[in-house]
Amino acid sequence: MINIFLLGLPGAGKGTVSEQIVDKYHLTHISTGDMFREAMANETKVGLEAKSYIDKGDLVPDEVTAKLVEERLGQPDINEGYILDGFPRTIVQAELFEDIAKRMNKQLTNVISLEVKEETLIRRLSARFMCKKCGATYNKITKMPKVKETCDRCGSHDFYQREDDKPEVVQNRLKVNEKMNAPLKDFYQKKGLLTVVDGEQTPEEVFKNVDAVLSKKQ
Protein backbone atom coordinates (compact mmCIF):
# COMPACT_ATOMS: atom_id res chain seq x y z
CA MET A 1 0.00 0.00 0.00
CA ILE A 2 1.19 3.51 -0.83
CA ASN A 3 0.13 6.41 1.42
CA ILE A 4 1.44 9.82 0.36
CA PHE A 5 1.55 13.31 1.78
CA LEU A 6 2.32 15.91 -0.90
CA LEU A 7 4.15 19.07 0.17
CA GLY A 8 4.75 22.14 -1.94
CA LEU A 9 4.01 25.83 -2.12
CA PRO A 10 0.97 27.10 -4.07
CA GLY A 11 1.71 26.72 -7.78
CA ALA A 12 4.27 23.92 -7.29
CA GLY A 13 2.11 21.46 -9.25
CA LYS A 14 0.60 19.32 -6.48
CA GLY A 15 -2.79 19.13 -8.22
CA THR A 16 -1.33 17.94 -11.53
CA VAL A 17 0.93 15.29 -10.02
CA SER A 18 -1.93 14.11 -7.73
CA GLU A 19 -4.09 13.40 -10.80
CA GLN A 20 -1.22 11.47 -12.43
CA ILE A 21 -0.60 9.42 -9.25
CA VAL A 22 -4.32 8.61 -8.90
CA ASP A 23 -4.48 7.49 -12.56
CA LYS A 24 -1.54 5.10 -12.22
CA TYR A 25 -1.81 3.84 -8.64
CA HIS A 26 -5.60 4.15 -8.06
CA LEU A 27 -5.11 5.94 -4.75
CA THR A 28 -7.80 8.06 -3.13
CA HIS A 29 -7.11 11.80 -3.14
CA ILE A 30 -8.02 13.24 0.26
CA SER A 31 -8.41 17.01 0.24
CA THR A 32 -9.26 18.59 3.58
CA GLY A 33 -11.39 21.22 1.81
CA ASP A 34 -13.48 18.51 0.14
CA MET A 35 -13.68 16.58 3.41
CA PHE A 36 -15.08 19.56 5.30
CA ARG A 37 -17.68 20.24 2.59
CA GLU A 38 -18.73 16.57 2.40
CA ALA A 39 -18.93 16.04 6.16
CA MET A 40 -20.98 19.23 6.63
CA ALA A 41 -23.31 18.37 3.73
CA ASN A 42 -23.83 14.85 5.13
CA GLU A 43 -24.26 16.32 8.63
CA THR A 44 -21.92 13.80 10.25
CA LYS A 45 -21.15 14.35 13.92
CA VAL A 46 -17.68 15.74 13.18
CA GLY A 47 -19.01 17.71 10.19
CA LEU A 48 -21.55 19.48 12.40
CA GLU A 49 -18.86 20.16 15.01
CA ALA A 50 -16.62 21.74 12.33
CA LYS A 51 -19.57 23.74 10.99
CA SER A 52 -20.22 25.25 14.42
CA TYR A 53 -16.76 26.87 14.31
CA ILE A 54 -16.91 27.89 10.65
CA ASP A 55 -20.33 29.52 11.09
CA LYS A 56 -18.87 31.74 13.84
CA GLY A 57 -15.90 32.63 11.64
CA ASP A 58 -13.50 30.74 13.93
CA LEU A 59 -10.68 28.42 12.86
CA VAL A 60 -11.54 24.75 13.21
CA PRO A 61 -9.38 23.34 16.07
CA ASP A 62 -6.67 20.82 15.16
CA GLU A 63 -8.39 18.06 17.13
CA VAL A 64 -11.63 18.47 15.14
CA THR A 65 -9.80 18.49 11.81
CA ALA A 66 -7.89 15.38 12.91
CA LYS A 67 -11.18 13.63 13.79
CA LEU A 68 -12.48 14.52 10.34
CA VAL A 69 -9.38 12.98 8.71
CA GLU A 70 -9.80 9.87 10.88
CA GLU A 71 -13.44 9.60 9.80
CA ARG A 72 -12.37 9.85 6.14
CA LEU A 73 -9.56 7.28 6.49
CA GLY A 74 -12.12 4.81 7.84
CA GLN A 75 -14.09 4.79 4.58
CA PRO A 76 -13.73 1.73 2.29
CA ASP A 77 -12.30 3.61 -0.74
CA ILE A 78 -9.04 4.13 1.19
CA ASN A 79 -8.10 0.43 1.04
CA GLU A 80 -5.80 0.91 -1.99
CA GLY A 81 -3.96 3.84 -0.35
CA TYR A 82 -4.31 7.62 -0.26
CA ILE A 83 -2.79 10.99 -1.19
CA LEU A 84 -3.14 13.57 1.57
CA ASP A 85 -3.57 17.18 0.46
CA GLY A 86 -3.92 20.19 2.77
CA PHE A 87 -3.30 18.35 6.05
CA PRO A 88 -1.18 18.36 8.16
CA ARG A 89 -0.21 22.04 8.05
CA THR A 90 1.62 22.22 11.38
CA ILE A 91 3.80 19.98 13.55
CA VAL A 92 0.92 19.59 16.03
CA GLN A 93 -1.32 18.35 13.20
CA ALA A 94 1.46 16.08 11.90
CA GLU A 95 1.79 14.46 15.35
CA LEU A 96 -1.98 14.06 15.66
CA PHE A 97 -2.12 12.47 12.22
CA GLU A 98 0.78 10.14 13.03
CA ASP A 99 -1.16 8.78 16.03
CA ILE A 100 -4.33 8.32 13.95
CA ALA A 101 -2.54 6.62 11.04
CA LYS A 102 -0.67 4.26 13.38
CA ARG A 103 -3.87 3.31 15.19
CA MET A 104 -5.60 2.59 11.86
CA ASN A 105 -2.53 0.89 10.34
CA LYS A 106 -2.51 3.46 7.52
CA GLN A 107 0.83 5.17 8.15
CA LEU A 108 2.46 7.39 5.56
CA THR A 109 4.89 5.60 3.25
CA ASN A 110 6.10 8.72 1.42
CA VAL A 111 6.26 12.49 1.86
CA ILE A 112 7.07 14.18 -1.45
CA SER A 113 8.04 17.85 -1.53
CA LEU A 114 7.85 19.65 -4.89
CA GLU A 115 10.50 22.38 -4.88
CA VAL A 116 10.03 25.38 -7.20
CA LYS A 117 11.75 28.79 -7.26
CA GLU A 118 9.74 31.77 -6.01
CA GLU A 119 9.84 33.62 -9.36
CA THR A 120 8.47 30.53 -11.14
CA LEU A 121 5.65 30.19 -8.60
CA ILE A 122 4.70 33.86 -8.96
CA ARG A 123 4.62 33.49 -12.75
CA ARG A 124 2.55 30.29 -12.58
CA LEU A 125 0.06 31.54 -10.01
CA SER A 126 -0.45 34.88 -11.71
CA ALA A 127 -1.35 32.95 -14.89
CA ARG A 128 -3.92 30.74 -13.14
CA PHE A 129 -7.66 31.08 -13.79
CA MET A 130 -10.74 29.04 -12.89
CA CYS A 131 -14.12 28.04 -14.21
CA LYS A 132 -16.78 29.96 -12.32
CA LYS A 133 -19.30 27.14 -12.64
CA CYS A 134 -17.38 23.99 -11.59
CA GLY A 135 -14.08 25.31 -10.17
CA ALA A 136 -11.80 23.55 -12.70
CA THR A 137 -8.34 25.18 -12.67
CA TYR A 138 -6.42 26.29 -15.78
CA ASN A 139 -3.17 28.12 -16.47
CA LYS A 140 -2.23 30.48 -19.31
CA ILE A 141 1.28 28.96 -19.35
CA THR A 142 0.77 25.26 -18.75
CA LYS A 143 -2.90 24.25 -19.04
CA MET A 144 -5.30 26.07 -21.32
CA PRO A 145 -8.78 24.60 -22.04
CA LYS A 146 -8.75 22.16 -24.97
CA VAL A 147 -11.41 24.28 -26.70
CA LYS A 148 -10.80 28.01 -26.48
CA GLU A 149 -12.81 29.75 -23.73
CA THR A 150 -14.70 26.51 -22.93
CA CYS A 151 -14.27 24.54 -19.69
CA ASP A 152 -13.08 20.97 -20.36
CA ARG A 153 -15.08 19.67 -17.40
CA CYS A 154 -18.49 21.37 -17.64
CA GLY A 155 -18.55 23.31 -20.93
CA SER A 156 -19.03 26.70 -19.26
CA HIS A 157 -17.57 29.85 -20.86
CA ASP A 158 -17.37 31.80 -17.61
CA PHE A 159 -13.87 32.11 -16.12
CA TYR A 160 -12.32 34.24 -13.37
CA GLN A 161 -9.06 34.80 -11.48
CA ARG A 162 -9.03 34.33 -7.72
CA GLU A 163 -8.09 37.42 -5.72
CA ASP A 164 -5.23 35.53 -4.08
CA ASP A 165 -3.78 34.59 -7.50
CA LYS A 166 -3.20 38.23 -8.42
CA PRO A 167 0.56 39.07 -8.53
CA GLU A 168 0.47 41.58 -5.67
CA VAL A 169 -1.07 38.98 -3.32
CA VAL A 170 0.90 35.92 -4.50
CA GLN A 171 4.25 36.90 -2.95
CA ASN A 172 2.79 37.24 0.53
CA ARG A 173 0.93 33.92 0.18
CA LEU A 174 4.19 32.19 -0.70
CA LYS A 175 5.99 33.63 2.34
CA VAL A 176 3.20 32.49 4.67
CA ASN A 177 3.14 29.00 3.15
CA GLU A 178 6.94 28.62 3.18
CA LYS A 179 6.95 29.46 6.90
CA MET A 180 4.44 26.63 7.46
CA ASN A 181 6.12 24.11 5.15
CA ALA A 182 9.70 24.38 6.42
CA PRO A 183 9.09 22.74 9.86
CA LEU A 184 7.06 19.95 8.23
CA LYS A 185 9.90 19.16 5.82
CA ASP A 186 12.29 18.91 8.79
CA PHE A 187 9.80 16.75 10.71
CA TYR A 188 9.46 14.19 7.88
CA GLN A 189 13.14 14.37 6.91
CA LYS A 190 14.04 13.18 10.41
CA LYS A 191 11.62 10.27 10.01
CA GLY A 192 13.23 9.24 6.71
CA LEU A 193 10.01 9.75 4.74
CA LEU A 194 10.86 12.90 2.75
CA THR A 195 11.82 12.95 -0.93
CA VAL A 196 12.47 16.30 -2.64
CA VAL A 197 11.48 16.51 -6.34
CA ASP A 198 12.43 19.35 -8.68
CA GLY A 199 9.09 20.96 -9.62
CA GLU A 200 10.70 23.28 -12.19
CA GLN A 201 10.53 20.48 -14.77
CA THR A 202 7.63 19.72 -17.12
CA PRO A 203 4.64 17.92 -15.52
CA GLU A 204 5.71 14.73 -17.37
CA GLU A 205 9.25 14.92 -15.96
CA VAL A 206 7.98 15.68 -12.44
CA PHE A 207 5.71 12.63 -12.53
CA LYS A 208 8.52 10.45 -13.90
CA ASN A 209 10.62 11.34 -10.83
CA VAL A 210 7.71 10.85 -8.42
CA ASP A 211 6.82 7.56 -10.11
CA ALA A 212 10.41 6.32 -9.66
CA VAL A 213 10.09 6.92 -5.91
CA LEU A 214 6.66 5.30 -5.57
CA SER A 215 7.40 2.25 -7.72
CA LYS A 216 10.05 1.22 -5.16
CA LYS A 217 7.30 0.86 -2.56
CA GLN A 218 5.36 -1.71 -4.55
The geometry reads as globular
Q: Helix proportion of residues, in percent?
A: 40-55%
Major sheet description: 5 strands, parallel
Q: Which sequence of SSEs, written as H and E, runs from N to C?
A: EHEHHHEHEHEEEHEH
CATH topology: Rossmann fold
Judged by helices, strands and strand pairing, the structural class is alpha/beta
pLDDT < 50 stretches: none
Give the overall average pLDDT: 90
Strand order across the largest sheet: 2-3-1-4-8
Number of contiguous helices:
8
Distance between the termini: 7 Å
Number of strands: 8
Q: Quaternary status of these chains?
A: single chain
**Which superfamily, in CATH terms, is the homologous superfamily?**
P-loop containing nucleotide triphosphate hydrolases
Question: Which strand-content bin applies to the residues?
Answer: 15-25%
Name of the level-1 CATH class: Alpha Beta
Question: What value does the Rg take, in angstroms?
Answer: 18 Å
CATH architecture: 3-Layer(aba) Sandwich
As for the number of domains, it is: 1
Protein name: Adenylate kinase
GO molecular function: AMP kinase activity; ATP binding; zinc ion binding
Enzyme class: transferase
EC number: 2.7.4.3
Task: Outline the secondary-structure elements.
Elements: E1 2-8, H1 14-25, E2 28-31, H2 32-41, H3 45-55, H4 62-73, E3 81-85, H5 91-103, E4 110-115, H6 118-126, E5 128-131, E6 137-139, E7 159-160, H7 167-190, E8 194-198, H8 203-215
Parallel strand pairs: 1-3, 1-4, 2-3, 4-8
Antiparallel strand pairs: 5-6, 5-7
Binding site for Zn(2+): 131, 134, 151, 154
Pfam families: ADK, ADK_lid
Enzyme class: transferase
